[in-house]
Amino acid sequence: MLNAFMSYLGSTVTPGEAGNQFWALIYVLIIFTGVSLAVVCMNWLERKALAHFQIRLGPMRVGPHGLLQPIADALKLMLKEDIIPTEADQFVFWVAPLIGLLAAFTVYTVIPFGPSQAVSDMNIGILFMLGVSSLGVLGIVVAGWASNSHYPLIGALRSSAQMVSYEVAMGLVVVSAILMTSLNASGTGTLSMIGIVQAQQQQGVWFIFKFFPLGFIAFAIFAIAMVAETNRAPFDMAEAESELTAGFHTEYSGLRWSLFMLAEYAAMIAVSSIAVTLWLGGWMRPFPNLLHAPACEFIFSLFPGLTFGGLAAIAVLGTARMPAHSFFKIQRIGLAAFAALLGFIALLLLVIAVAGRSADTSVAARFREGIDYVYWFVLKVAVFMYLFIWYRATWPRYRFDQLMKIGWKVMLPISLGVLVLTAIVGVIFP
Amino acid sequence: MVPITTLHYLVVAAALFVLGVIGVLTRRNVVIVLMSIELILNAVNLNLVAFSRMWGNLHGQVFAIFVTVDAAAEAAVGLGILIAFFRNKETVNVDEIDLLKW
Amino acid sequence: MNSAMNSAVSTINAGMAPVATPWFFYVLAGLAVASGVAVITRRNAVHAALALIVTLLSVAGLYLMLYAPFVAGVQIIVYAGGIMVLFLFVIMLVNIERSSKERRFNRMWPVGLAAACALMALFVSAIAKGNKLFPDRGMTLLESSNTQQIAAMLYGESSRMGQYTFAFEIASLLLLVAILGAVIMTKKKI
User: Fold this and answer.
1) HSE toward the beta carbon, residue C99, CA cutoff 13 A
2) For the whole model, what pTM was predicted?
3) Which residues of C are less than 8 Å from B7 in CB distance?
4) Does residue B17 lie in a domain region?
5) Is there a contact between A141 and A160 (Cβ–Cβ < 8 Å)?
6) How far apart, in Å, are the Cα atoms of C145 and each of A282, B61, C9, C187?
7) Residue to substitute from C44, C76, C78, interface A, most A β-carbons within 10 A
């Protein structure tokens, strides 16, 4: 067991590629837990951030600063009565949330958190990802139909039309990014997610900065299409509460409803991961080729520890600013404990960074590298997650015909143009 | 256990093909007839890919991709015809599509 | 067979042992055929569409077992993600309430079934008689460069490698015609 662990740490391939089913299973479990935790954090963060955008406090009562609110919500949803309408198609109604959830979580098998920190390195990685994430629309359509009610059906039709339309522009800009991977000495591109990041490393530039306006336009189109793909504001026509109550999941309640929410947030993280992998250098830290002196390596490897240290400092500040009333005694103790936990993680990460500073193959160095990769990847994805909340707080909802017009008449021509120009520029300046 | 050979895949493909033919010949609903055609095309694709593996080259796989393109075109046009027809006759049953003009 | 095609074939023992076992094949094949039966027997068109999605995904799994990852990816993205969503969309647009209460099969169904049974008998006899004709071999295709090799056959420069370039262009024309046809067919006023 320990030997297997050590030999795995020494290998430079993903568990799926090494044919190691045990480690692939462990990875799947870790990723499943990690994504579920991230969804829980995201839920809390979204409520707090939205509240602060509107000069409100947001959840404050359950735990210090509402930190335990997601747990309370989850408990409430699990205990709630699970209603299936009598006129609904029982089996399809039951299976619809699972389709969405399955599609959202299957995508994570090819997301590279590091050069060997992925479940598998498929030859068709990006194709697989786009295909499986497009299966999510089936769950929505089928849920809307099975509810046998007007609002869900209209919501489902809207969202399927929207997702299919934006998939076209999305696919075309992804192709333009794949085109960029072929601009190397051998002249062959790759669809593998790990290969795409490695191509960015070899060419010494994130694809967002490649052929300057082109890469950026492609990224911008993907960033817009990605919001439409996940049915988030300002493109959340499918669940526009002022028009369709709750859209396709109007008839859902309790645990099934929470499965839809879980699928939606997991899909958000998944598409953000595609954007990060294709255009923002995936697991690479800033300037990996330029600043590769050992001192720079060491400074950059301190970042994970410092981030957690900063979070701990914020929690400590929150503890100090807690009102000095006896009502808040338990809350203050809770927040202090949370700060202590964050501080402990920060200390652990700093110790690993210091112990593994030499770039050899010792266990500590391997650990340090792995943590670095995952940290930079998660940081980039977290920026997107915050952007999702920011969009929702800032922009009003589009009308459905405006949405379709933007999708087909603006985004599609631009993405086609970007694709053609990328091909031309790639041939002229290889 | 018996190792899986090309023949196994051919049997599966033949079964899917026959199922598709039954669907096309017996069902009334045009949507399901179109779906059965997709089933037939899939059976053909499975055969092509299985032979591609048997001969050890990729011609079969390339042809399977062309068949997929054809299936997409066929589905789009077929469903377009279906919607146009439904708009005029309010039915999706093949045995009611028996007039040349109305 | 040219040299590039030979490079697509590696020896069976090269690389790791495939994860997919015979057991995996039987599960996928059983799933494909069982849901294929459901496609042609379900009264409700949405149920049939869901069953067809299961068939398509299990066939994609069979492609993966046949060392054709790119075809499997295309299968998922085009069939399951594109065509089936279109089908579901149309099923919801056309009136399903009426057709779900009507007869499932047309009046000629015994004839159709007999024809299909004859076809099945043909297949069975062909497989039974041709059993020895098929070489009992399974090549191991190089999975890691499958996409690159298919791309070379579709767009390659030399006349030998890019032998499908013209066919590819024709396919794109076919798609263009299909788009125009679908738009003209469904538009009320042109």
Assistant:
1) 28
2) 0.86
3) 127, 131, 134
4) no
5) yes
6) 22, 13, 11, 44
7) C76
Number of compact structural domains in chain B:
1
CB contact under 8 A, A127 and C80: no
Domain of residue B55, CATH code: 1.10.287.3510
Any CB–CB contact under 8 A between B49 and chain C? yes
- Contact present, C and A (at least 3 Cβ pairs less than 8 Å): yes
A neighbours by CB contacts (3+ pairs under 8 Å): C
Full residue range of the structural domain in which residue B85 is found: 28-90
- Reported as a single tens digit per residue, the pLDDT across C39-68 is 988 888 888 889 999 999 999 989 988 888
Q: Is residue B2 part of a domain?
A: no
Given its phi and psi angles, is residue A68 left (phi above 0), alpha (psi -120 to 50 degrees) or beta?
A: alpha
* Backbone Cα Rg of chain B: 17
Task: Mark the ranges of chain C whose per-residue pLDDT is less than 70.
Answer: 1-20, 95-101, 131, 135-141, 143, 157-161, 189-190
- Distance from C-alpha of A226 to C-alpha of A244, rounded to nearest angstrom: 22
ipTM: 0.89
Which chain C residues are closer than 8 Å to A404 by Cβ?
Answer: none
**Any A CB within 8 A of C89 CB:** yes
Q: Is residue B70 part of a domain?
A: yes
User: Of C166, A178, A187, A170, whose CA–CA distance to B62 is shortest?
Assistant: C166
The pLDDT tens digits of the residues spanning C155-171 come to 876 666 678 888 888 99
Given the structure tokens 């066919």, which residue do they identify?
A: C167
- Asked if C74's CB is within 8 angstroms of A95's CB, the reply is no
Min Cα distance C85 → chain A (Å) is: 6
In this prediction, residue C6 carries a pLDDT of 36
Q: How far is B44 from chain C (nearest CA, A)?
A: 11
Q: 3-class secondary structure for C110-172?
A: HHHHHHHHHHHHHHHHHHHHHHHCCCCCCCEECCCCHHHHHHHHHHCCCCCCCCCHHHHHHHH
Q: Return the structure tokens found at C133.
A: 């004709």
The reply to whether B9 falls in a domain is: no
Chains touching chain C, criterion 3+ CB pairs below 8 Å: A, B
Give Dmax (Cα) for chain C.
63
